[in-house]
Amino acid sequence: xxxxxxxxxxxxxxxxxxxxxxxxxxxxxxxxxxxxxxxxxxxxxxxxxxxxxxxxxxxxxxxxxxxxxxxxxxxxxxxxxxxxxxxxxxxxxxxxxxxxxxxxxxxxxxxxxxxxxxxxxxxxxxxxxxxxxxxxxxxxxxxxxxxxxxxxxxxxxxxxxxxxxxxxxxxxxxxxxxxxxxxxxxxxxxxxxxxxxxxxxxxxxxxxxxxxxxxxxxxxxxxxxxxxxxxxxxxxxxxxxxxxxxxxxxxxxxxxxxxxxxxxxxxxxxxxxxxxxxxxx
Amino acid sequence: xxxxxxxxxxxxxxxxxxxxxxxxxxxxxxxxxxxxxxxxxxxxxxxxxxxxxxxxxxxxxxxxxxxxxxxxxxxxxxxxxxxxxxxxxxxxxxxxxxxxxxxxxxxxxxxxxxxxxxxxxxxxxxxxxxxxxxxxxxxxxxxxxxxxxxxxxxxxxxxxxxxxxxxxxxxxxxxxxxxxxxxxxxxxxxxxxxxxxxxxxxxxxxxxxxxxxxxxxxxxxxxxxxxxxxxxxxxxxxxxxxxxxxxxxxxxxxxxxxxxxxxxxxxxxxxxxxxxxxxxxxxxxxxxxxxxxxxxxxxxxxxxxxxxxxxxxxxxxxxxxxxxxxxxx
Lengths: 281, 329
Hints:
A: mainly alpha, MetI-like fold, 73% helix, B: 329 residues, 14 helices, 0% strand, transmembrane (chain A), ABC transporter permease (chain A)
């Protein structure tokens, strides 16, 4: 009930949810909507948006809208999978560090600092020289393994503060095993917090994977928004010719829309889990 | 003294980190199928050199002798690294990597620093406003703008700026550091051209950092506003301006962690920013080196970017100690 009231109090939050739902639908059903390979039409290269091609066509005469819809699955699936990997590793490290404190904490947090300090994108493009991680699960492993530092640090500080609460003291006082305390008492209380961090991670991972394709350092195994941007900017001449406008802008706008959707939606989630932010009248 | 005991472990961790990255890039280059050294060695043999000559040539160009055991090569690599020798670039045929990096570094450091300063000034002031006015529409919009710019991917920002200000409105040039027809030097047209070409990269860096400053400042100010001494100041009837000075001085402290984080974002993002704006900085050098399979240059650029971030972390920590007396005690 509170959830619904918080969600509907600002219209932006509903809009955010709708945007996310739209893209989720696109990712799930998109490839079925346009089955088969991309249609190529040499007579309609870089044609302007029309009734037939809502977003115009690209350098080969393929429909831009179709490419966007088909590309959505790769982008979103990979980002979600990466966020899942990062959340699992980060939560585990943060929980163990925050719960055990002492030397375990020091070692794990030094490791986390290490992961956070090494610049992610340069590391990934250096890594791409020995491992061409183009497939969704490969990309997700590469992004997840290099991107869990933020989640770990956030979970640790949250664990440290939960640790001092009465219910955990009671659980420890009852002599329950640390495994029970960590997985049965701490983890359920951390879940919403982790979910929030996962949503934030999704934005970052969409940026990172599309950036890797945009730079062209991973093999173009499937059609996605990053590949579109790469071809628009580096071979399609989209930065100079107005004809390629929709081809360049369509993937950019999709990324912007998802970012806005997640930010708007997070605003509601944030208020739900952070009562201190609720407005005082 | 206290500062020193706090700083030493940080320095040690930083050094370990630099060593780890150096080791990582070393073994990465050696994990590559057919190392560039081996390929060159075979080429020299084919072109009629004796094995000794070819060996000497390869070791002079690639910085390691490719037929030694791996551990010996690794020791030699670390030893040369300690002397500031990163080997020779392949794509710039034999120019020392350090020279290439030295030429590129200013084109990354100055725009990134300028962006950092702008982002800090604008982000923290807007963050304070967003905190004080958090119940109003403007406060909400401000914090929303922070989350938006913190979330938006670097290259999207760069491409949109380039598209709007160059292709669409034709207000600003981009590509390279200045108009190529001008002679470099301290003359009017050249300086103007350099500044014009720097505006878009700097703006990208600034917008990139803006969100983190705003959001952190906002939550910091909100937590300080709840402190007792602010209530006391209010009850004593101090003017809002004085009260705001108390608040901002206390709320600025957590900003130093953002400083270190921002440097990381900016330098990491430089690969994309410089790629879009065709700017000859470190990120572009790293990208070009990967395209040309120039491994000495690649590991050098990656190492330098990491070292810069590690140093920024240490500096942030040092500043924190100087500014917050509670840490020193």
